[in-house]
Amino acid sequence: MLNFHLAPLKIAVQTPWRFAVGVAFAAACTVTASHAQTAPPRASAVPPVKVAMIESLSGAFANTGEAVFRNILWAVDRVNARGGVLLPAEAGGARPLALSRYDSKGQNEEALSALRAAIDDGARVVMQGNSSATAAVLIDAINKHNERDPDKRVLFLNYSAVDPILTNEKCSFWHFRFDAHADMRMAALMSVLRTDSALKRVYLIGQDYSFGQAVLREAKKQLATQRPDVAIVGDELHAVGRVKDFAPYAVKIKSSGAQAVITGNWGNDLTLLIKAAREVGYTGSFYTFYGNALGAPAAIGDAGIDKVVAVAEWMPNVPGAQSEAFYQSFRARFPKPQDDYVHMRMQLMVEALAQSIEAAGSVEATAIARQMEKANVQLAGRSGRMRAADHQFQQPLVVGLMEKQGAQGVTFDVEGSGYGFRVVKDIPAAQTQQPHSCQMQRF
Question: Is the pLDDT score of 330 beyond 90?
Answer without folding.
Answer: yes
